[in-house]
Amino acid sequence: MNKIPISGRTVSGAPYFRFTDTFEVGADVWGALDPGIVDPGNVSKMCALYVIPSKSDVQWNADNSLAHLAILGGNAAVPKIKVQAGCINANKVLLWPGASQPGEYDIVADFGNNTPDAASFVSDAQYNTPLDIIDGYFIAGFRVVEDPGTLGDWAQVGQWFYNETTQGIATVVDEAGSYSTPGGFASVNVSVPRKANVFFPADAPGVTSPAQISGVSANYPLIVVIHGNGHNYTSYDFLLQHLARNGFIAASIHINSGMSGLGRANMLFEHLGILKPAFGSKLQNNIGLLGHSRGGEAVIKAARLNQQQGLGHGLNALMALAPTDQYGHETLVAPWATPHFVLYGSRDGDIKGDIYTPGYTTAQTGFALYDRSADASKQMLFVHRASHNGFINYNEDFSGEASTCISVADQQKVMLAYTNAFFRKELSADPRWEGMFSGDWVPPSVSVNGTLVQTQFRRAAASVIDDFQANATWTTSSSGGAVTSTGLPVTPAEGKLRDHPAASGIDPLSPHDSSGMRIRWDNIGDRIDWAIPAGQGNVSAADVLSIRLGQVAGSAINPANAAQNLRIALRDGAGNERAVRVGAFSTLPYPDVRPVSTRTKSALLTVRIPLSAWTIVCAGQPKVDLTNVVSVSLVLSETPAGEVCVDEIEFSA
User: Which Gene3D superfamilies match (predicted)?
Assistant: First the structure.
């Protein structure tokens, strides 16, 4: 079978194309034939590119006919190209402008009467092996997905409210205040009324009892919201209703003002003891937690306590909204590692980025929680000009910045889209929106407003070239290879990105709890190279090269208010090197400069470049042998000068 990737997005400049299989509604779907992977017999031949509803292998065996989508004009409008040998740029075509019809699709390159002559070419409108090429067959070639911020599978939502009148008052153990050493707290007992708002899928309007939950599905995952200090559990109703329309039982629980992280986690367990019997067999032991502010730290604490105490709750996804980091360096690692999502605004007026708890050495924000998380997939969204409470109800004015924030309505759109996508991905095993977290695309409800977001994303398993965590010197990577530089005006600085109070770290405005490297250049052509040790150069099983990069805030050498750019080069053992522009796949934005300059953040983002970017046939570009890569390099050729921090250079899925 002649099966290769065809669908993707166009890229400005080499490698000209990025293969991908997921497109948001409204995105342009392109197709391209890489002459480096098509059968040599197809090169220089004409073909017609059909887009059809996806068919299974059984359906293909029963019917191999091709019917180009009616919305694209049917078979009379099928685009035709001649496969060129020299460059993929000559073989790409816009197949579906502004794709508007959600669903799964296949692409077939029909070579018809197998001729190089455009005038005599005739498509036979059939998929015939081995001549024709398919992107699909066993699984769909590509999908067009709805915006998770506006998606709703249920038109009706039920609601159930309970309080201490029926559920009584709980007494739980809490921490007496913030502290840095794990376990180093004084405990207090707190009495808390058990009250919550609960929403769930329904089949009719006016439903108010868990017994009336929709019969469409046998059972449903549960999401519980734990609010922050001074917040109200009823403020999240708009979000709970959206989650209920997407197939979740969604609850927000009351927490007393002033409570710390442990008390919040213990109140969660109290409410699970109410929710589980109330919904019975209709509630899966498949639970997601969303914590806001102190609640964002509490959800990590809950995962640890659940595992250590053998409570048996299926806590399978954790989301931290503008979380604190002040209760004992809580860390999400095995054996309680859980998929984790952090959402945080650059103009948070409460969790500002200060270091206020004795014993902490890095900014106490969600960045630190993300950095310390390991052993499960993790993702973070840093939203420019978003605030602490604006994702829910209002822009706080702790630092006189409320008027500079994006609107609450725009922040709520971020909240609806990314919360729904994350929990559908992790609790419903629905991968359609993973590209939102890996930085591939932004949902239309968010992008239409011009909201600027930075993503971080990391899978649990990766082949690390340099994570900078324990290197004795910058000239040796964590994988044991040599690191060298050419032309840099100053020696790269390596170490803790921020370290207080013993030292400032290599970047005093970094919000990260990690080590990295700070690099400055002042001439096009400067570079820094990481040699890959012998035996580690076969990276062909990986999908992407992943690296965390970010502009250094306050650096006078970075162009003011402008995105930064550079190239990443791979070289193989035969000396073939290709340098790919970061800007073709991601944007390194200028830091959001806050009125209080010390709260501006040198925030890293994750750049993930498909390894096909180094193998796609491009005119004048050597192809890199991914089974024998000998070096990874940052080639500083796109701007005359700049300063960035770097972390986590790795090959990953």
Answer: alpha/beta hydrolase
Instruction: List pLDDT tens digits, range 19-46.
Output: 999 999 999 999 999 999 999 999 999 9
Q: Which of 108, 95, 104 is nearest to 145 (CA)?
A: 104
Contact in structure between 483 and 632 (CB atoms under 8 Å) = no
462-652 CATH fold: Jelly Rolls (2.60.120)
CA distance 107 to 140: 9
To which residue do tokens 């360096």 refer?
A: 329
Taking a C-beta distance cutoff of 8 angstroms, is the pair 371, 507 a contact? no
Q: pLDDT tens across 465-500, in order? A: 999 998 889 999 999 999 999 999 999 999 999 988
Task: Write out the DSSP string of 72-83.
Answer: GTGGGG--EEE-
Q: Which residues pair with 521 in a beta bridge?
A: 642
State the pairing for strand pair 315-321/283-292. Answer: parallel
Structure tokens at 310: 């053998």
List the CATH code of the domain at 156-428: 3.40.50.1820
**633 class by beta-carbon count within 10 Å (0-12 exposed, 13-18 middle, 19+ buried):** buried
CA dihedral over 436, 438, 441, 442, signed as positive or negative? positive
Domain boundaries defined on the chain:
7-145, 156-428, 462-652
At 647, is the pLDDT very low, low, confident or very high (cuts 50, 70, 90)?
very high
Q: How far is residue 483's CA from residue 531's CA, in Å, rounded to a whole number? A: 6
* CA neighbor of 389 nearest in space, from 357, 356, 343, 423: 343
Nearest 5°: phi and psi at 58? -65, -45
How far is it, in rounded angstroms, from Cα 601 to Cα 511?
A: 6
Q: Which of 358, 346, 386, 230 is nearest to 294 (CA)?
A: 230
| Torsion, Cα of 367, 368, 369, 370 (10° steps) | 50
Contact between 66 and 107 under an 8 Å Cβ cutoff? The reply is no
**Interatomic CA distance for residues 307 and 315, integer angstroms:** 9
- Count CB-CB contacts under 10 A for residue 18: 19
Residues 51 and 68 sit within 8 Å (Cβ to Cβ) = yes
* pLDDT over 70 percentage in the chain: 100
Residues 591/347, Cβ–Cβ less than 8 Å: no
Whether the link from the prior residue into 15 is cis, omega within 30° of 0, is yes
Q: How far apart are CA 575 and CA 558, in angstroms?
A: 32
Sequential DSSP letters for 375-406: SS-EEEEEETT--SSTTTT----TTS-GGGSP
Query: What is d(CA 148, CA 418) in angstroms, rounded to the nearest whole number?
Result: 7
Q: Are 435 and 442 in contact (CB under 8 A)?
A: no
Query: Which H/E stretch holds residue 298?
Result: helix 294-308
pTM for the whole structure = 0.96
Helix axes 237-245, 408-427, angle to 10 degrees: 40
Give kind and range of the element (H or E) at residue 644: strand 642-652
CA distance 388 to 415: 12
- CA atoms of 354 and 387, how far apart (whole Å): 15
Query: What span, in angstroms and rounded, lies between the C-alpha atoms of 472 and 470?
Result: 6
CA angle 390, 393, 395 (to 5 degrees): 40
For residue 411, the surrounding DSSP H or E stretch is helix 408-427
